[in-house]
Amino acid sequence: MNDSLTSVKLSNGLQMPSVGLGTWLSLKDEVKTAVRAALDSGYRHIDTAYSYKNEDAIGEELQEYLKNGKVKREDLFIVTKLGLIHMEPKQVRRSIEMSLKKLQLDYVDLYLIHLPVTLEYDGDDENLFPLTEDGKWKTAEKSDLLQTWKALEELVDLGLTKSIGVSNFNISQVERICKIAKHKPVINQVECNIYWPQNELFEACKKLGVTITSYASFGSPGRPGEYKEAEEPKPMEDPIIQRIAKKHGKTTAQVLLRNLLQREMIVIPKSVSPERILTNIQVCMRHKNKFQNDLTNKPAFI
């Protein structure tokens, strides 16, 4: 990561902006407002997924800014993810092409396997999470992560994505991919915050040349009930974080993000508030001061 914490050099040599806009659970109208606010605030990294159902809304905003000359395509870093129903190798190219059509782009900068889970594809591309009779995800009878990865590698060769990576993978799964990879994963996007620091995974991925992107850096207060753990801790309410924020005139969100950035991670805080979107990216401005020192000399759990 460079001194200003603004970008990270990936193992394939590309520079990835260290702060991006997360868009999970952002409805189409909300995400349009968020993308406009993000681009106006200096963001160039936008994170989405086939399964988020908002790629088309994001694409509309990107095209408006590109056509008006407000941004250049080469300055953007767009990330999307493979649908869980499209994990079968023969579906992979079709899936990214559907995403690119919605995003109105010729390529994405990073394409991720969203989860190491294959759901049964029934021919309906809108049935993103097919369920069994008892309400559980209906997984495919057969799946092979390594074959899916090889299908992603073909997307790089075809110029449909510049980089490929994974999301929600454990150490063993990342190691398996790296052993057979022609194009190695550059990113593993996982939940990571002060209460779930992912230290072991971080160190293992670092040795493999895989950078961590943190989602749910503030915890996930908006997480739907079916994804929520009982009594989830709330990093934004942590008294140590609040004390550091007050001491330096920062928001608690800025302290939580800065902690991860100084660990050489990428962050994708989700917000639809223009004000919070702006303050989130201000954590990577060029300044070395007591604020940074307080985070460096942080309690062990941070």
From TrEMBL:
<dbReference type="InterPro" id="IPR023210">
    <property type="entry name" value="NADP_OxRdtase_dom"/>
</dbReference>
<keyword id="KW-0560">Oxidoreductase</keyword>
<dbReference type="InterPro" id="IPR020471">
    <property type="entry name" value="AKR"/>
</dbReference>
<feature type="active site" description="Proton donor">
    <location>
        <position position="52"/>
    </location>
</feature>
<protein>
    <recommendedName>
        <fullName>NADP-dependent oxidoreductase domain-containing protein</fullName>
    </recommendedName>
</protein>
<dbReference type="Pfam" id="PF00248">
    <property type="entry name" value="Aldo_ket_red"/>
</dbReference>
<feature type="site" description="Lowers pKa of active site Tyr">
    <location>
        <position position="81"/>
    </location>
</feature>
<keyword id="KW-0521">NADP</keyword>
<comment type="similarity">
    <text>Belongs to the aldo/keto reductase family.</text>
</comment>
<feature type="domain" description="NADP-dependent oxidoreductase">
    <location>
        <begin position="19"/>
        <end position="285"/>
    </location>
</feature>
<dbReference type="InterPro" id="IPR036812">
    <property type="entry name" value="NAD(P)_OxRdtase_dom_sf"/>
</dbReference>
<feature type="binding site">
    <location>
        <position position="114"/>
    </location>
    <ligand>
        <name>substrate</name>
    </ligand>
</feature>
<dbReference type="InterPro" id="IPR018170">
    <property type="entry name" value="Aldo/ket_reductase_CS"/>
</dbReference>
<dbReference type="GO" id="GO:0016491">
    <property type="term" value="F:oxidoreductase activity"/>
</dbReference>
